[in-house]
Amino acid sequence: MPSTTTWKQLTIHTSESSHWKHQPLYQEILGMARQQELMGVTVMQAIAGYGKHGVFRTLNVLDAASESSDLPLVITVIDREDIISHFYTSLQPLLKNTFVTCQTIEVW
């Protein structure tokens, strides 16, 4: 049975090369989420993709060996609406070169 709580999914699209204060951006976001005790966060690395500049990124054997592929990352955060709203506000300084979506979801 679906929950009566309003749940949100915050999705942040970024890349491996994105950093915040000399730390990978995804690690900073994970740390902030953990510090604020959010329910759950997942970071997924894509095998291929492109962004607003149209540069196609893909993982191949040579890129894997040189660690220069700069693959897309998708960070998914799920929690109650009020918590996601507060978390998003706290992330604002970090989100300069990202694409962010937020949607209402059902949690069973």
From TrEMBL:
Top-level division of the source organism's lineage: Bacteria
Record protein name field: Uncharacterized protein
Family that this chain belongs to: Belongs to the UPF0166 family.
One Pfam family recorded for the sequence: DUF190
Coiled-coil segments on the chain, per record: none
